[in-house]
Q: What sequence folds into this?
């Protein structure tokens, strides 16, 4: 009798986030022109391009903050275009901002509890306004501590944002997103201002989080080496247009990408 063969791991390639033909116009500026991109569960998808290329605008469209004049946003096949940002959050699309949006009077653990409640719909505003922060249940506290532990943040659970260095504040922002149990995580320049050690740690955490939790992470970054090292696929914008997409090695060799990054003849070399 032959031994029962172990089944190979089933790799789902169902798209989590799909942007189709997105166009955004700000007065005379066409910030995005017919841009399509996809992000898959468990993977980091890089989004790069020179300053003003339209990267942040594309994340704003993906999170519902910027309605496109043309084009569509789908999350796991469900159309979200035209719906309020809250509907995007409810559909488990989470994003961090270039500067972490933390509440002065709340400690790190309380920030996570607030994030958990975004999904359950429990009162948020009164929690934030209360000088004591949210009254957390035992279950919420345990969940928060588990997540903080997995992100290496246990030691700062009781500290307020003002007591934390920038790199840690960024991680708390990511922890909050993860606390919302996202399907898609949108990160806009998360390593800006971090030193090399913090950047490496951040990259490792984002890769692990995406893989272990099946999150489709979209990473906007000026640190091209970082993007090339952790992304499964990469999309490149220039002047609002998609000029390339592909694997890191394809992007490295792409002439249009090299031309867009004037002064760096070899991208990521
Ligand atoms: N709210 C706005 N009103 C008017 N123009 C805008 C607005 N937001 C962005 N733009 C313009 O749209 C274009 C794309 O901007 P965007 O911020 O998306 O670029 P980016 O790729 O994120 O750049 P950076 O790398 O500098 O962050 C730029 O020309 C910018 O000036
Ligand atoms: Mg930007």
A:
């Amino acid at each position: 009798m032959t031994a029962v063969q172990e089944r190979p791991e089933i790799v789902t390639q169902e798209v989590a986030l799909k942007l189709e033909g997105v166009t955004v116009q700000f007065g005379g500026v066409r910030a995005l022109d017919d841009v399509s991109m996809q992000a898959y569960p468990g993977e980091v998808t890089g989004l790069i391009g020179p300053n003003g290329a339209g990267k942040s605008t594309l994340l704003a469209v993906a999170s519902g903050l910027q309605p496109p004049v043309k084009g569509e946003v789908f999350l796991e096949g469900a159309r979200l275009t035209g719906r309020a940002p809250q509907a995007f959050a409810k559909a488990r699309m989470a994003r961090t901002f270039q500067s972490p949006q933390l509440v002065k009077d709340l400690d790190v653990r309380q920030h996570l509890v607030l994030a958990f409640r975004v999904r359950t719909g429990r009162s948020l505003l009164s929690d934030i306004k209360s000088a004591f922060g949210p009254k957390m249940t035992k279950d919420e506290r345990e969940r928060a501590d588990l997540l903080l532990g997995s992100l290496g943040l246990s030691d700062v659970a009781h500290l307020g944002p003002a007591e934390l260095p920038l790199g840690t504040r960024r991680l708390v922002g990511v922890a909050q997103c993860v606390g919302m149990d996202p399907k898609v995580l949108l990160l806009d320049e998360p390593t800006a201002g971090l030193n090399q050690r913090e950047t490496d740690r951040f990259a490792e955490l984002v890769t692990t989080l995406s893989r272990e939790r099946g999150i489709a992470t979209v990473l906007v970054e000026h640190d091209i080496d970082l993007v090339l090292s952790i992304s499964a696929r990469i999309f490149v914008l220039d002047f609002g247009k998609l000029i390339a997409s592909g694997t890191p090695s394809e992007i490295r060799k792409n002439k249009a990408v090299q031309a867009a990054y004037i002064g760096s003849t070899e991208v990521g070399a």
Summary: Residues 1-10 have pLDDT under 50 and may be disordered.
